[in-house]
User: Which sequence fits this backbone?
């Protein structure tokens, strides 16, 4: 399971100040997203998740300069959420330096032409961000007049070509069904939020989750990135010989 640092961008800076040496009084605090990204990549982060908070409000990427600065600084995939609401916005995100994008569920769940247009631009690098709270699914004005279950929503989108989901406000009880659906359709699943300790990380890793987006828990020191990655690293096979 991948541990992916998540950086919230507001007005071109990180919403949270990162101070990697806060516990020992060493190092320098920073709200520069490219410096934060570099610090985590140096610790082994396989990708960086960026959330354009201003872009989420306006419906188009706003933090383009910050995204470009991160792209110039680290050589790992950059996944952008916020502002990537359609094919034109996705193209702007890619032009800024993003390599993956997250489209909100409500933009595409019942708009097959828009989803197809987004897939035409992003292909397998398109993810759909899903707020998994039951009341959100229930209150959405579905054309059929009936609220589908979370698994049915994800299955429908997977059948139309979506290869990655980012699930927020998720419940553990739903994850086994969702993971099984993803395995059957070769779909990746990332979890955003809901992780506040290494025990919880181990629990979701055991279910077969592809990745976890870690934000505030990394910034405030609740989870140490290096320790968490070491804990999740597969143990070497006993007695295995090198060829």
Assistant:
């Amino acid at each position: 399971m991948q541990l992916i640092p998540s950086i919230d961008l507001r007005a071109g800076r990180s919403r949270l100040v990162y101070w990697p040496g806060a516990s020992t009084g060493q190092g320098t605090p920073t709200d520069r997203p490219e410096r934060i990204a570099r610090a985590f990549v140096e610790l082994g982060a396989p990708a960086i998740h960026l959330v354009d908070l201003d872009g989420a409000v306006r419906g188009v990427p706003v933090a383009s300069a910050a995204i470009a600065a991160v792209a110039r600084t680290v050589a790992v995939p950059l996944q952008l959420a916020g502002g990537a609401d359609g094919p034109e916005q996705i193209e702007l995100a890619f032009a800024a330096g993003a390599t993956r994008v997250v489209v909100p569920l409500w933009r595409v769940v019942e708009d097959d032409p828009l989803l197809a247009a987004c897939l035409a631009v992003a292909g397998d690098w398109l993810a759909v961000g899903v707020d998994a709270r039951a009341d959100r699914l229930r209150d959405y004005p579905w054309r059929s007049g009936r609220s589908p279950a979370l698994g049915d929503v994800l299955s429908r989108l997977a059948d139309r070509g979506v290869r990655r989901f980012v699930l927020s406000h998720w419940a553990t009880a739903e994850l086994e069904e969702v993971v099984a659906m993803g395995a059957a359709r070769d779909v990746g699943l990332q979890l955003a939020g809901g992780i506040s300790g290494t025990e919880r990380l181990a629990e979701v890793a055991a279910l077969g989750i592809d990745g976890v987006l870690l934000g505030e828990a990394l910034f405030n020191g609740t989870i140490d990135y290096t320790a968490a990655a070491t804990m999740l690293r597969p143990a070497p096979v006993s007695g295995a010989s090198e060829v």
User: Anything to note?
Assistant: Residues 172-185 form the longest helix (14 residues). The domain at 2-231 is CATH 3.20.20.70 (TIM Barrel). The two ends are 26 Å apart (CA to CA). The CA atoms of residues 20 and 26 lie 8 Å apart.
